[in-house]
Amino acid sequence: MRYFFGVKNSWFVFVSFLIAMMLEIFPLPSLLNNIRPECVLLVLLYWVIVLPAVRKVWIAFLVGILLDFLHSSPLGIHSIAVIVVIYLMMKLRQRMQIYSLFHQSLIIAALIFIYQFIIVLTYKIFGLSPYYYWYWLSILSSTLLWPWFYILMHDIRRCLNMYIGHD
Amino acid sequence: MIIKFLFKKDSFLGVRTLFFLIFSVFLIVTDLRVPPFHRVCQQISVAFLPIRYVVNLPGYILNKALTDMMFKQELLQQNAQLQASLVLLKAQLQQQYALESENQQLRNLLNLNTKNQLGVQAAQLISEIISPFVREIILNKGSMDHVFEGQAVADEWGIMGQVIEVNALSSQVMLIIDSRSSVPVQNQRNHSRAIAIGDPQLGMLRLEHILNTEDIQEGDIFITSGLGGRYPYGYPVGQVISVIRNAGSQFSDIIIKPSAHLTRSRIVLLLQKS
Question: What pTM does this model have?
Answer without folding.
Answer: 0.79
